[in-house]
Amino acid sequence: MQNYEVMDITLKQQKIISDPLRGQIISLLAEKPMTSKQTAVELGKNPGTIYYHIKQLYEHGILELDHVETVKGIVEKYYKAKTTLFRGPGGIGEEHRVKNRVPLYLSDTLMDDMQEEMYQLFKKYGKKARADKTAKIPCIVEFSITEIQEEDKGE
After folding, report:
1. DSSP result, the chain
2. Which end of the chain is more exposed for a tag (fewer CB within 10 A), N or C?
3. pTM for the whole structure
């Protein structure tokens, strides 16, 4: 099962990940570790540009070094995203959010299943967004399951 850890981020980190290209890099490197050159090829971008963005994401704690390989004397660093779930210090303007809320009664198994399906859906649309050369609207997509705490009615 995937890592669903939510990473609390600073305003600086929030600014770093808000760039749409960096969002694509995070999404791609959440699927599997890659070098900056492999990432550039996958995204159809200039390797120097991708190297710069990966370096920024790594220096600000969004990416981590997965492993290093030496091939024919060349050191290849493989990076991976720590997570794709971030919680920033400030909220997003409510007027720009699309919200759908559905109250459900779920078992632990159903919550786990739903979480896995939503993660797969996010990955699917991450791939579609990377392939869609007309995609220009930066968005943050959120999914959460919040357990409702019922008030004590005994008194």
Report:
1. ----PEEE--HHHHHHHTSHHHHHHHHHHHHS-B-HHHHHHHHT--HHHHHHHHHHHHHTTSEEEEEEEEETTEEEEEEEES-SEEE-SSPPPGGG-----------HHHHHHHHHHHHHHHHHHHHHHHH-TT---------------PPP---
2. C
3. 0.63
Compute the distance between CA of residue 111 and CA of residue 150 in angstroms, rounded to an integer: 18
State the chain's mean pLDDT as an integer.
81
* Position with higher pLDDT, 121 vs 102: 121
Question: Two tokens at 69?
Answer: 């390989």
Six-digit token string for 20: 């749409």
What pLDDT, on the 0 to 100 scale, is given for residue 93?
45
Cα 143 versus chain centre, distance: 12
One-letter identity of residue 18: S
* Burial classification of residue 26, based on how many CB atoms lie within 10 Å of its CB (0-12 exposed, 13-18 middle, 19 or more buried): buried
Q: Which of 2-6, 37-41, 97-101, 108-112 has the lowest mean pLDDT?
A: 97-101
Question: What angle in degrees, to the nearest 10, is found between the helix axes of 47-59 and 36-43?
Answer: 120
